[in-house]
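Record type: ASSEMBLY
Status: queued
Input:
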Amino acid sequence: MIRLTLLKLLQAVPVILIVSVLAFLLMSLLPGDPAVLIAGDQATPEAIEQVRRNLGLDRPFLEQLGIWFLHLLQGQFGSSLMLNQTVLSAMAERLPVTLSLAGLSIAITLPIGIFAGSVAAYYRQSWVDSLVMGVALLGVSIPGFWIAILSVIVFSVILGWLPSSGYVPIDQGAIEWLRSMILPAIMLSLFQIGFLARMTRSAMLDVLSQDFIRTARSKGLSEWVTVGKHAFRNALILVITTMGILVSTAIGGSVVIEQVFALPGIGRLVVQGILARDYPLVQGVMLIYGFAFVAINLAVDLLYTVADPRVRYD
Amino acid sequence: MTASSLVSIEDLTVQFRTDRGWTTAIEGVSFDVAEGDCVGVVGESGSGKSVTALSMLRLHARGTSRFARGSVRYGGQDLLRAPERTLRQIRGRDIAMVFQDPMSSLNPVLTICDQISETLCLHQGVSRAAARQRAIELLDLVRIPDASRRVDEYPHRLSGGMRQRVMIAIAIACRPRLLIADEPTTALDVTIQAQILELLRDLRAELGMAVMLISHDLGVIAEFARRVIVMYAGRIVEDAPVDVLFRAPRHPYTEGLMASMPALEGGAGRLYAIPGRIPDADEPIAGCRFGPRCAHVEAICQAAAPELVAIGATHRVRCTPRTRTSGTS
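Status: finished
Output:
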């Protein structure tokens, strides 16, 4: 288990390296001269040259890359151009919002998606199956921004049940926090529930036709134990794979959802950064997203070994 | 149903849903299994052996099969119509099953201990610790070496023969009165086959349970069973004590099966094969379903489907020409 963890960590290193290089290349790939942009409209050529020197953009390419990595290793992400703070502190400030949103959305997705998919598989080709799969198809097909805006109109504007925007930190009251997050989280999870339900259904269908399910029934086990224990423990392996994709889409989807609900999270930060051409900020968020995806996939790989004894000794 | 019979199957007729409607997989299957008896069921693939076995515990896939007629009587109840709850109490406790493929019949993500103790906890209400102890004893009983270590392993760590032993351990955990073994040795090596059969034979004697062994291999049946039921195209064609069946088979199909067994002596002659193939369940055949493949077919065979006729106290045959003169046998 420890060996496997180390191995997987080792495999993550090149991925992180590539992500870092891509984030670095952002500076040189984008059209225009960053120094001109940063110095502003009114800058004199001398001032632009000064900015260029300060940023190290006048040095050879490889030297720039080396300095970039050196700074990363020291935990220096640079300073934001539009905000009066470092990139790291700007991200740290907004991370709880995005984590709340993604975490709550996954917490909603997992039980509902797995249950719906299992029920559909168990009652395959019945009206229950058709209903669940129909709703799941809607979930994956409806554009997130549209249903999110619609939900604001219904629940906030017409019914007035929930605030339409804004974020309340959890230390200012769990209820208020939940009220501010529940609608965005549900909107974010609609796609994921649909996706997870479909994946769970196909995994369960496969498992339910296996011989060991017949063995379980022949022992006199109830349907609940047969499906909930014998079948589900096997379907879990595929569900865990799906979870990696789910968390990834939750992070991706949070960009749109934070925008709609005006939540001050990482996703909204990066949109603002892009619009303001705040290169250091965008680079920083890119790196954080890259690390997050690597970490998620690492977690999925390790979860496999817990769910499936057959990969434990490999 | 005689006084000593444990399970009594009457006119069992099972149909499966197909694209063209309901297809009859087995029809009019009737036989008894006596307490402590040892019945062999033999036939080609598709003859309805497994369907018969699975029907006894109602283990077919849901929604795609139905019992058109008949009954399976056990302990004063008809298992085909008993409520699911009653059936669950009988499964694994009174009637247990061992399946063909030990590779896929065990759950890959649960430990052996978990899979054996499950039945014990369910039917005997023992604690988990006690069930674990029982599981080790059971593994010893089915002759798995180093049982106390093996009990915590997952099925993929065991060989096919070992897995089948574990399946048997699960099946006998609650000391069932009937063990149904559906092709238990088909997926195994010949040497392992012999060991598993010997194990089943010993366990039967030790535990006093009845065993119903299903196989397409007459050799296995000859070695194991006291009584043999021969099935063809979803029907019983012959039912006789093992020595009678092997010495004097009456049905042309049984004769064909005997002839297609390789003999130890007699050299390298071409092995006999019954011509043709087993008909599909819904293939229209007039009269006897073995007729098209039978070397002794007569006009009367195609006129009407033959009945399973008793030609002695313990011998039944489904063949019109052969039972017509049964008085002289």
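Annotation: The radius of gyration of chain B is 21 Å.
Annotation: Residues 190-207 of chain B form the longest helix (18 residues).
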